[in-house]
Each structure stands twice: as structure tokens, then as C-alpha cells.
């Protein structure tokens, strides 16, 4: 029997732990039923590569959803930017860096345009971005002339298919990857300890020390095992580092900065935020610009991974991205949601995709199962909130 | 078959109603005779609307005390449909029409002229024409409700009531948003309905209108019926009605303070605002007012006088359009065109509706406290959580906010403590002028006194306070000076010392 304070804490933070435990349980389940294929170094690396663009977009989508909106156009924007990159680099033979810059700026402009309609003309984001979804899907087709365009220059492909270069060559394990991976895990642990100290100083309900220790140990152990496994294949993929850096930046942005705080206030009560002097329109616009840039980045990562821009690229991505945010605990009415939740949500979806594909489950049943999981997560949320 | 042996159409006996221990109705007796117009008057908060909600079944039996007799039978309404079935129809201040449906569709909403679920459009049309003729409304039944004015919408509501075979029509402030001509037409219609045998309960602030149509007046005060006056023989003097309305003596409900007004802090000159939805309708008409340092200035007015609208239009143009005029702080003209600029000019506006406009309910006390001035707890855009908690905790101590700690969600606090958080949030911006809109609405008596004391101490610090309130005793108890507002205009100004509720009420109603 757990002591009552511990039980009380667990109960009131059911959501936070529930998410992580769900991910671990799903991974464990597929690890068993796929006879250990899931966590094989090759598959694990692929898992990250396959989901990196969803995670990148989920970071932006979380901000949009927290601000009280939605963006249905991200899949199309993703495809459009991939097509733009192909036209610039393959057909027009632009060098990689200027092409990348133009693509990211294009994403910002697309986000800005849609955001302007939402923020200043007060047109519901659902409608604006539904229109955007159609428009950019069409423009991608037009750019590519209905054909796949590729291959990309090698220096561009590195974005997705490259791995962290290994200095002392010839070793069985990739030492640089190991070192960087473990350093990151150490930084994370130190930050958690610091955050816990601060929470105690603020007098907010701190996690009981037993629980904290266990969680920290489990979390570091799990991440360490992942790094260890991947180091035995080709090392850490570039895109994983990019993704990790972005997750760090956005977690920091949403939790520690005035900008992040204002977005939460905007989504939590827009009229109160406006009467508190928060520039709600500008902030909404900014969320969409940010979403556009991240969708463009995801489009580049995806194109680099396939090494070709296809008219079908990005199809349906918006559904996975939005589902990741909601599974991760974001509220459809705005003001609630965490970056780390959205990331875990994305991986829950990713692991299920990957595991079911390994098992050879048909795409039709994959869709059904993913839909049920999404609904279950949100129902659990609503139920939990009503009780609390 | 009459079981109560009375001739009254409606009799309400010893009605009482509590909300979680707060008494809204203490003891109300009301008897409405068939075919009479019975006016109910009382201050805001006297219990008029609650009484009508008890009558119409919005608060079902047995959530209230007392008995309701209608047509000689004891009634225990479980909901609004049961009272409507007997012919009791209530028309609320906010009209319950669907703007994008036609007049005819609205008339029969919920009681469609239909057979087996299929609407009979020709019957709908002919019945609608007939009903519109009865209320004297010259519009096609096909016109959208959105396309006709408020006055005509009011008539549609009454026609809708007639469609339900109304026996007792209850009108809550029917003329509050009508102009003079529309009001006259409405009153004439009420008289015609009386002639055809429909009894009517009229809730109104406008004593002149009541004098014109009412047969009987019942005065409510603090949840009790104080007096019933018969107007048929000799209409009672307005002074007598007003005295009955405000009656109570002032007791020690307000902190003692010695006002010490300094220089003029805030001035508003020739302030005009157009209604945001009705193009060409001036909602605020050339307001001029000033507030001195250390002074508490009140704006008195009835519901719909435009007090909140005035305050919000000043505070960052948060209400209205085509705003003209100038705002001055310490003798310099200031730019108040956005909320941020108004805050920078030294203003703070504590909203009337703290839940919808003041707080992010699912956020903590600390996060709500810092919201208006995140610069004060951050460096280079990085929030210092520790400093934020300290700031919030200082305010918590200063205001004696009752909570488990500043990390508690504000949604879990009581109304009075939520109001303290809103005040803390604005005090953190270090304003010179505080505009307080209904600062004690929905707060219990003890918390009210704490808020009053806080307001008094802010004035003593040299801040200017502009206070909007619908509770006259509160304004008289707290303020040094009062502005009187009526239909978008500041119609008078008086020192609060020496003013009584009667004099203010008379000045507001324009009866002297």
C-alpha cells in the first residue's frame, strides 16, 4: 500500500505519468509481439527518421492549438515546400543553402498569410487553413507538373539520411554519438533537479522524492539505452539532433518566456488577455508564421529523406500532427498543452504505425486503431478534468 | 374550481429563495388580478428577476419556499414548459429570438404549425399575419428578425407570447433598450392586451411609464415585498415609491475615510462613441468628467445607461467605434488607443465580469497576478518564477486573499477572493487611475468590506478611483463625488455628501 500523500500526488498527476507510461507500455507490447524487432538498432533509427517531421510540426501545432486555433494546411505546406526545394535545387540547380533559406521564408510567408486572415479578419482558422490545405496541395502539383522530381544534391540529403560523423573511426560503437547522447541525458537530469529545487522554493506541490528519483532513473536509463542501441548501428542521425534541439527550444519558449506565457493566456481567455494589454492579434499571427516555418522545415526533412519530391508528399500529415497534440493533452478549446506532451503523443502514434507495419497489419486497421487511441486519450482527459 | 377562494389570477405566497446560503428572496407576497397591469419595482438586486424565475419555473419546485397559486390551483412547476402550458409567458430583457430566422418562424418556435412534423407553411403565414396585426406590427412574416429594430423585435416577442395563448404576460424591463416612440407603442399595446383580458406583470425602472399604465404596484426591497399600492383610485406619489424602494438606513458597511482630494489626475473631454453594431447610433454622447488624486468618483446609472461602455471605450478602445474626444492624465493629453498604451498612461480597468474578462480561470493565482506586467517579473523575456511567486505572495498577504497558496488555480477561489486577484493583477501595473466596474458584484458582505477598505487605502495613497456600480448605497457610502449617467449621457454631477438614494434616483429618473 502506498502512503496516502504519494497516492494523492500520483492521482492528481495521472495525466503526466499516464502519457509516459502509455508510451512505454505500447513500446513494450510491440517489442514482445514483434519478437524484438521494434527495438533493433536499425528499426529504432528508422523510427526516429520516420517521425521526425511529425514531431517538428507538432511543436508548431501545439502553439497554434494552445492559442485556440488549428492548422489543417500543414501537410499541404509540407508537400509544397518539398516541391519548391526540388524545383530550386534539381531543376534550377541552386546551391543548397540559398534554396533552404528561400524554402523557410516561403513557409513563413504562407503561415503569415493564413495567420493574417485568422488574426485580423477574424476568420475561423479551421476555414482559412482548410482553404490553405487545398491551395497548397494544388500548388505543389502545379510546381511538380504532376511528376516526382529528384534526386537531390548529396549535401541536402545529409539533412535526413546523415549521421553524426564519428571521429575515432574503426570502433564498433560510435563513440561521439555515445558521448553526445549521454551528455544530453546528463543535462536533462541536472535541469530536472534544478526545476524540482525551484518548485520546492515556490511552495508548489512537489513530486515526492521517491517518485522523483524513480522517474529520473527510469527516464535516464531508457534514454541511455536508446542512445546505446543507436550507437551500435550508425550513430545518432542528424535529424534526431535537430529534433532534440527544437524540442529543447520550444519547451523553453513555452515554459520560461513571456512570449510563451502570453500565448497560453491568449488561448485560456482571449478577451481577458486583450484587456490585459496583450497584443492578441499579433501573437496569433506569430503562432501561424512559426507553424509555417516548421511545416517548411518538416517538408525539407521529408523530401531529403525520400530524396525526391513527389506530388503525394505531405498527404494526411496534418492528421497525425494534430492527433499527436491532442493525445499529448492539449485542449481543443485552447490554453492548455505541453510541448513534451505533444512530442510523446507523436511518438505514441509513431510507435504504433511502426509496430503495426512490422506485424503486417493492413493500413485499414491501422487507421481504425489510431482513431480509437486518439479518442480514448481525449476521453480520458475530459473524464480526468471533470473529476478534478 | 378555485381551491384558494381568492379572485386573483396569480397569487404568490411567502416566496423565499436561497442560492448556496445567500438569500435572494426573503418573503414576497404578490397577487395579480385578472386583466390588470401589475408593476414590480425595486433597486437592482432587490430580487425582481429571481421572483419571475421562480414563477416561470426556471427555479423549479421545491427549490424555493412558499406557494404559487394560479387560476385557483396550487402549482408546482418543474420547468418552464409547465408554466407556459398554463399561459404564463415571460419575456426577458435579452430577447430570445433567433436573428436569422423569419418573424413567422420565430413566432412558432417550439410550437410549430405542423402536422406529423411537417410544417404547414400557409397556416403558419396566416396565423402569423393575424398575430402581427394584434400587436400592431406592420411587417411581412417573412422578414428576418435580424432586419428589424429592437422595438419591433419586442413586439414579435409579445406576438410569440400571444401565439401560446398567454394569460399572464411577464415583461422584464421591456423598454430599457427602446426609444421613446417604440416605448409608447409598447405601452399602448399593453393597454390593449389588458382590455382583451390578458394580465401583465411589468418590471421596470421607469416610474413615469409605470404611472401611465399600472393598475397596481408592488415594491420589492432586499428580497421582500415592502408595499403594494393601488393606482386606480389615486396614483401614489413618485416620492413615496422611491422611498419604499430604497428605504433602508445606511449602517456601518463602509470604512471610515477622510477624503483629501489633490490635483486633477484624469480628465475626459467631449468623449463620443458610436455603438459598434448600430451604425450612426451614438452610445456615449459627449462625456466630460474628471477625477482628482485621492478622490473616489462614482458613476451612477441604471442598467444600460452606458457606464461600462464608457469605461471600456476609454480603456484602449475596447468597446465601440468612431471614438472621438481626448483623455488627459496629470494635465497632459494621453494616447489610450490600445490597452497597452492606456496601461502605460497609468490606467487600470477592473472589469465587471471577472470570470469572462478578468481572469484565466485554469491558471494559477501567480500567473494571473503577473499577466498585465510580465516585464516586472522577467529579464530579456525570461520569466523568473521565483520572483513571480514572491510578487503574488506579497499581494496575497496585503489583501488577505484566502487560498492554499499562490500556485492554486483561481477558478477554485470564491468570488471575493477572485476579485482580490483581479485587483492584485491591476495594482501590479502600478496605476494612477483605477477604473472599478462593479467591484463587489456577487461578493458576500464580509468580502465587500475588505474590498471597500482596500479601495479606501488606495485613494489615501493618492490614486484616483473611478467607480461604476449599480448599487446606489455602495456609491453613496464610498464616493466623494458622483456623476449621473442616463442613456449614454452624463446628465448630472453631485457631491456624495448630503446626497440620498432618493435624490440620486430622482435625478436619474428625471422626475424632478
Describe the structure.
Chain A has 388 residues and is mainly alpha-helical. Chain A is built from 16 helices and no strands. In chain A, 43% of the residues are buried. Chain B has 17 helices and 24 strands. In chain B, a hairpin with a 2-residue loop joins strand 19 (378-379) and strand 20. Chain B is α/β, with parallel strands linked by helices. The mean pLDDT of chain B is 87. Classes of the chains: A mainly alpha (388), B alpha/beta (512). The A-B interface holds A 198, 201-205, 256-259, 261-262, 264-265, 268-269, 271-279, 335-336 and B 315-316, 318, 338-340, 342-343, 349, 351, 356-363, 366-367, 371-372, 374-375, 378, 381-383, 385-386, 389, 405-407, 425.
What is the topology?
The complex is a heterodimer of chains A (388) and B (512).
Chain A: H1 4-12, H2 14-33, H3 41-66, H4 74-91, H5 96-119, H6 125-144, H7 154-161, H8 175-202, H9 209-231, H10 238-256, H11 258-268, H12 270-275, H13 280-306, H14 317-327, H15 339-359, H16 363-387
Chain B: E1 10-19, E2 22-32, E3 37-41, H1 48-56, E4 65-70, E5 73-75, H2 80-85, E6 88-91, H3 103-107, E7 114-115, E8 118-119, H4 121-135, H5 150-163, E9 168-172, H6 180-195, E10 199-203, H7 207-213, E11 216-221, E12 224-230, H8 238-246, E13 264-274, E14 282-292, E15 296-300, H9 307-314, E16 321-329, E17 332-334, H10 339-344, E18 347-350, H11 354-358, H12 365-370, E19 378-379, E20 382-383, H13 385-399, H14 415-427, E21 433-437, H15 445-460, E22 464-468, H16 472-478, E23 481-486, E24 489-495, H17 501-509
Amino acid at each position: 500500500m502506498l502512503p496516502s500523500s504519494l497516492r494523492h500526488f500520483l492521482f492528481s498527476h495521472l495525466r503526466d505519468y499516464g502519457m509516459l507510461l502509455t508510451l512505454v507500455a505500447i513500446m513494450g507490447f510491440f517489442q514482445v509481439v514483434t519478437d524484438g524487432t521494434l527495438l533493433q538498432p536499425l528499426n529504432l533509427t528508422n523510427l526516429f527518421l520516420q517521425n521526425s517531421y511529425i514531431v517538428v510540426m507538432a511543436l508548431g501545432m501545439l502553439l497554434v492549438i494552445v492559442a485556440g486555433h488549428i492548422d489543417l494546411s500543414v501537410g499541404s505546406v509540407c508537400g509544397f515546400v518539398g516541391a519548391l526545394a526540388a524545383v530550386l535545387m534539381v531543376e534550377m540547380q541552386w546551391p543548397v543553402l540559398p534554396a533552404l533559406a528561400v524554402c523557410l521564408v516561403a513557409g513563413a510567408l504562407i503561415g503569415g498569410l493564413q495567420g493574417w486572415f485568422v488574426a485580423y479578419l477574424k476568420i475561423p482558422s479551421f476555414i482559412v487553413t482548410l482553404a490553405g490545405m487545398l491551395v497548397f496541395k494544388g500548388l505543389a502539383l502545379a510546381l511538380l507538373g504532376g511528376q516526382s522530381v529528384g534526386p537531390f544534391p548529396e549535401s541536402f540529403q545529409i539533412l535526413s539520411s546523415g549521421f553524426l560523423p564519428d571521429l575515432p573511426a574503426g570502433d564498433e560503437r560510435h563513440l561521439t554519438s555515445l558521448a553526445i547522447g549521454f551528455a544530453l541525458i546528463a543535462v536533462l537530469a541536472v535541469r530536472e533537479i534544478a526545476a524540482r529545487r525551484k518548485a520546492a522554493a515556490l511552495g508548489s506541490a512537489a513530486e515526492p522524492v521517491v517518485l522523483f528519483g524513480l522517474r529520473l532513473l527510469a527516464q535516464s536509463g531508457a534514454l541511455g539505452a536508446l542512445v546505446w542501441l543507436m550507437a551500435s548501428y550508425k550513430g545518432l542521425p542528424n535529424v534526431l539532433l535537430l529534433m532534440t534541439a527544437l524540442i529543447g527550444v520550444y519547451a523553453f519558449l513555452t515554459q520560461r518566456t513571456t512570449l510563451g506565457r502570453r500565448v497560453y493566456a491568449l488561448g485560456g481567455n482571449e478577451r481577458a488577455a486583450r484587456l490585459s494589454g496583450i497584443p492578441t492579434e499579433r501573437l496569433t499571427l506569430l503562432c501561424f508564421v512559426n507553424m509555417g516555418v516548421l511545416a517548411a522545415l518538416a517538408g525539407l526533412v521529408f523530401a531529403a529523406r525520400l530524396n525526391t519530391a513527389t506530388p503525394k508528399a505531405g498527404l494526411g500529415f496534418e492528421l497525425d500532427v494534430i492527433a499527436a497534440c491532442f493525445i499529448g493533452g492539449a485542449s481543443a478549446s485552447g490554453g492548455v498543452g505541453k510541448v513534451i506532451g505533444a512530442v510523446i503523443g507523436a511518438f505514441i502514434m509513431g510507435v504504433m504505425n511502426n509496430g503495426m507495419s512490422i506485424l503486417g497489419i493492413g493500413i485499414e486497421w491501422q487507421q481504425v486503431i489510431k482513431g480509437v487511441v486518439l479518442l480514448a486519450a481525449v476521453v480520458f482527459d475530459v473524464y480526468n478534468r471533470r473529476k478534478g | 374550481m378555485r381551491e384558494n377562494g381568492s379572485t386573483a389570477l396569480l397569487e404568490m405566497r411567502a416566496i423565499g429563495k436561497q442560492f448556496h446560503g445567500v438569500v435572494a428572496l426573503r418573503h414576497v407576497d404578490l397577487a395579480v388580478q385578472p386583466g390588470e397591469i401589475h408593476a414590480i419595482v425595486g433597486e437592482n438586486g432587490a430580487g425582481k428577476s429571481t421572483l419571475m424565475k421562480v414563477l416561470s419555473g426556471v427555479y423549479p419546485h421545491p427549490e424555493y419556499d412558499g406557494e404559487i397559486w394560479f387560476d385557483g390551483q396550487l402549482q408546482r412547476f418543474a420547468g418552464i414548459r409547465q408554466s407556459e402550458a398554463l399561459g404564463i409567458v415571460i419575456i426577458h430583457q435579452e430577447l430570445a429570438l433567433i436573428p436569422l430566422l423569419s418573424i413567422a418562424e420565430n413566432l412558432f418556435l417550439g410550437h410549430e404549425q405542423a402536422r406529423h412534423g411537417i410544417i404547414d407553411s400557409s397556416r403558419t403565414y396566416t396565423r402569423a399575419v393575424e398575430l402581427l396585426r394584434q400587436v400592431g406590427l406592420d411587417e411581412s412574416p417573412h422578414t428576418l428578425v435580424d432586419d428589424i429594430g429592437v422595438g419591433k423585435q419586442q413586439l414579435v416577442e409579445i406576438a410569440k407570447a400571444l401565439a401560446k395563448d398567454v394569460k399572464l404576460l411577464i415583461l422584464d424591463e421591456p423598454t430599457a433598450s427602446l426609444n421613446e416612440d417604440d416605448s409608447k407603442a409598447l405601452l399602448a399595446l399593453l393597454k390593449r392586451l389588458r382590455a382583451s383580458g390578458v394580465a401583465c406583470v411589468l418590471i421596470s425602472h421607469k416610474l413615469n411609464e409605470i404611472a401611465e399604465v399600472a393598475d397596481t404596484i408592488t415594491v420589492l426591497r432586499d428580497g421582500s415585498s415592502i408595499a403594494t399600492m393601488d393606482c386606480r383610485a389615486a396614483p401614489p406619489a413618485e416620492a413615496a415609491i422611491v422611498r419604499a424602494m430604497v428605504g433602508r438606513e445606511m449602517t456601518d458597511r463602509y470604512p471610515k475615510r477622510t477624503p483629501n482630494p489633490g490635483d486633477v489626475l484624469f480628465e475626459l473631454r467631449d468623449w463620443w462613441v458610436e455603438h459598434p453594431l448600430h451604425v450612426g447610433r451614438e452610445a456615449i454622447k459627449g462625456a466630460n468628467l474628471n477625477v482628482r488624486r485621492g478622490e473616489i468618483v462614482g458613476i451612477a446609472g441604471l442598467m444600460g445607461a452606458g457606464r461600462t461602455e464608457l469605461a471600456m471605450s476609454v480603456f484602449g478602445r475596447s468597446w465601440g467605434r468612431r471614438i472621438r474626444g481626448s483623455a488627459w492624465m496629470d494635465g497632459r493629453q494621453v494616447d489610450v488607443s490600445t490597452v497597452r498604451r492606456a496601461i502605460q498612461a497609468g490606467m487600470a480597468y477592473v472589469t465587471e465580469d471577472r470570470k469572462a474578462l478578468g481572469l484565466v480561470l485554469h491558471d494559477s493565482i501567480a500567473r494571473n497576478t503577473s499577466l498585465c506586467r510580465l516585464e516586472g517579473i522577467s529579464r530579456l523575456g525570461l520569466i523568473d518564477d521565483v520572483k513571480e511567486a514572491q510578487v503574488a505572495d506579497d499581494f496575497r498577504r496585503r489583501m488577505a486573499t484566502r487560498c492554499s497558496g499562490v500556485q492554486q488555480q483561481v477558478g477554485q477561489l470564491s468570488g471575493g477572493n477572485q476579485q482580490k486577484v483581479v485587483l492584485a493583477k491591476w495594482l501590479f501595473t502600478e496605476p494612477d487611475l483605477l477604473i472599478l466596474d462593479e467591484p463587489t458584484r456577487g461578493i458576500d458582505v464580509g468580502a465587500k468590506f475588505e474590498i471597500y477598505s482596500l479601495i479606501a487605502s488606495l485613494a489615501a495613497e493618492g490614486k484616483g478611483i473611478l467607480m461604476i456600480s449599480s448599487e446606489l448605497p455602495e456609491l453613496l457610502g464610498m464616493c466623494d463625488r458622483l456623476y449621473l449617467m442616463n442613456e449614454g449621457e452624463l446628465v448630472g454631477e453631485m457631491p456624495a455628501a448630503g446626497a440620498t438614494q432618493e435624490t440620486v434616483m430622482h435625478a436619474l429618473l428625471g422626475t424632478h
